[in-house]
Specification:
single chain, 346 residues, alpha/beta, seven-stranded mixed sheet, six-stranded parallel sheet
């Protein structure tokens, strides 16, 4: 099969023929019909993820059709249209038994712990525990966009952030996960402020639900600007980018007893950001991480998509070929693309 392949971190990947995957006893092979290009893939290519072993095929947001199953798979058969959370649980540990597969200590992550979906097909383990059947009315590109950024934003806003109607929500960063968070928080009845450095992204954030926007290049004190707009600070704030500046601002702009959720990865030189701990203590702030979303929670998200309250297809920016995805990946840290780029031609 054709796949994007690299054997050195930071070296431009190649498109080459590699062996077709085979399923484990508990796994399946999926013919990939669409796969999203995510900043996490860039981090992996740069060598920021310790789970990756070279050589490697990246890609973790995917949708497609099951073309082979292991002998132990009971719930899925050849021909099923499926997607999968980018963090998949083993199904056997205490965390999985409690329903928290997203923090499984023996998790399976396509594109990180195993070869991923920037290929014509991909092997997925622990299939019965983690695959999600797709409704007929959701196309492959939209389904692929759910696998990481949209699902992660859904859990961050709804489950970790516990958003309520009428609250003020600040979203720092208007990339794929940030725009997803804007749409989801708005659909849940919150008043959303989007913060970014690009006017085009901020304009789009308004189109999908933001009631206010802040251009960080034109504002000296982001936290103070948020407090002024909200009359005291955000109830919930999301760092959707992952940088020392956005993490700090997201905590600083909270009102008393506010909630910060860290979604953007903090890796490499950014792994230990400054935190205004005196404010955290004195104002009893809550700080959460959010790492993917469990397969069983997709039902609630897909129901909102089916009802029309959520429209993830609006967040898809570019459709790419596998070959076009190579330069898109290596320049992702400086990209100004709007929305989510999805590989749909292999």
């Amino acid at each position: 099969m054709r796949a994007m392949y690299f054997d050195t971190f930071g070296k431009t990947p190649e498109i080459r023929d590699v062996p077709d995957p085979t399923p484990t006893d508990g796994g399946v092979v999926i013919q990939v019909e669409a796969t999203g290009l995510c900043r996490s893939d860039w981090h992996g290519w740069m060598g920021h993820d310790p789970d990756i072993r070279l050589p490697h095929v990246p890609g973790h947001e995917l949708a497609g059709t099951v073309v082979a199953t292991g002998r132990g798979v009971m719930r899925y058969t050849v021909g099923d249209r499926v997607t999968v959370p980018f963090v998949s649980g083993c199904g056997r540990c205490a965390e999985c038994h409690s329903g928290n597969q997203q923090v499984c200590p023996d998790q399976f992550q396509p594109g990180f712990t195993h070869w991923g979906s920037f290929a014509e097909s991909v092997a997925i383990d622990f299939a019965d525990e983690n695959l999600v059947r797709l409704p007929d009315d959701i196309d492959a590109a939209t389904a692929a966009s759910l696998g990481c950024r949209f699902a992660t934003a859904f859990r961050a806003i709804v489950d970790q952030g516990r958003v309520r109607g009428g609250e003020w929500v600040a979203v720092h960063g208007a990339g794929g996960v940030g725009l997803s968070a804007v749409m989801i928080a708005s659909a849940m009845g919150a008043n959303v402020i989007a913060i970014d450095i690009a006017d085009t992204k901020l304009s789009f954030a308004r189109e999908i639900g933001a009631v206010q926007t802040i251009n960080a290049t034109q504002t000296g004190d982001i936290a103070e600007a948020v407090r002024e707009i909200t009359g005291g600070g955000a109830h919930l704030s999301i760092d959707a980018l992952g940088s020392p500046v956005t993490c700090f601002n997201s905590i600083r702009n909270l009102r008393r007893r506010g909630r910060h959720v860290q979604v953007g990865l903090m890796l490499g030189d950014h792994a230990a950001p400054q935190i205004p701990m005196a404010q955290v203590i004195g104002q009893e702030l809550e700080i959460y991480g959010s790492h993917g979303m469990q397969a069983w929670r997709y039902e609630a998200m897909l129901a909102l998509v089916a009802s029309g309250k959520l429209a993830p297809q609006k967040l898809i920016g570019r459709h790419l070929s596998l070959d076009e995805a190579v330069p898109a990946l290596v320049t992702m840290d400086t990209s100004t693309d709007l929305g989510i780029s999805v590989i749909t031609t292999f």
